[in-house]
Write a structure and sequence with these properties.
The chain is α+β, with helices and mostly antiparallel strands and 207 residues long. It has three helices and twelve strands; from the N terminus they run E-E-E-H-E-E-E-E-H-E-E-H-E-E-E.
């Protein structure tokens, strides 16, 4: 495995004030890539569209690890300071627009049937902080991107996984970023290795 880009070891910590829903394995390069896209669009820059076959990569401020078959960012998986578990209620609103557009009837009843509005119980965990280790090539750029990451959670629009503050500290753990899925010759499980983590083009066989 080769490392591209001279990055210094850094410990990044997010301090959260609300529970996290889902996202069992939080990778820092995911939210940072999202922030890069949002800021680029706000500046009027053209961002390539994601298709079923293609997902673009963006210039993130991390070193890269590379193998013969794939590559990724030198960022560890998140270590959560989980202190408990809970259940939260999320209001599921009916798909009124879709029903009005596609239903054959001219009228529909959003208060009846399986698609009516109701509260859905979702499992959540209480995590005061999440810590990552990474090799950073541009600290100022990392600060700029992290300032735009206000939530780390599914259902973030409902206020979950709210980030109150970020800490970026120097570290002496040069190899700590390797605590993450990495491709292996005898790999037995297919997992994503860089953002967007949901896209099929990001899968690789890891140990």
């Amino acid at each position: 495995m080769n490392i591209v880009g001279e990055g210094s070891p850094v410990r990044v910590t997010a301090h959260l004030s609300s529970p996290i829903i889902g996202m069992d394995r939080v990778m820092l390069d995911g939210p940072v890539a999202w922030a890069w896209v949002m800021l680029a669009k706000a500046e009027g820059r053209i961002v390539p569209a994601i298709t079923a076959e293609y997902a673009p990569d963006f210039p993130l401020p991390f070193s890269q690890w590379m193998t013969e078959d794939t590559w990724g960012w030198c960022v560890s998986k998140g270590t959560e300071d989980c202190i408990g578990y809970t259940t939260v209620q999320i209001r599921r609103r009916p798909a009124v627009y879709a029903m009005a557009r596609f239903a054959p009837d001219r009228s529909h009843h959003a208060g009846l049937g399986p698609f009516k509005a109701r509260d859905v119980a979702l499992p959540a965990r209480i995590v005061p902080s999440i810590t990552w280790h990474c090799l950073v090539t541009d600290k100022l750029e990392l600060f700029r991107l992290l300032r735009s990451v206000t939530n780390i959670s599914s259902r973030w629009r409902n206020g979950f996984g709210r980030v109150e503050s970020w800490d970026v500290d120097e570290s002496t753990l040069v190899d700590a970023w390797m605590d993450r899925p990495l491709p292996a010759v005898d790999g037995t499980r297919s997992v994503p290795v860089r953002p967007p983590y949901w896209h099929p083009s990001r899968m690789a066989l890891c140990d």
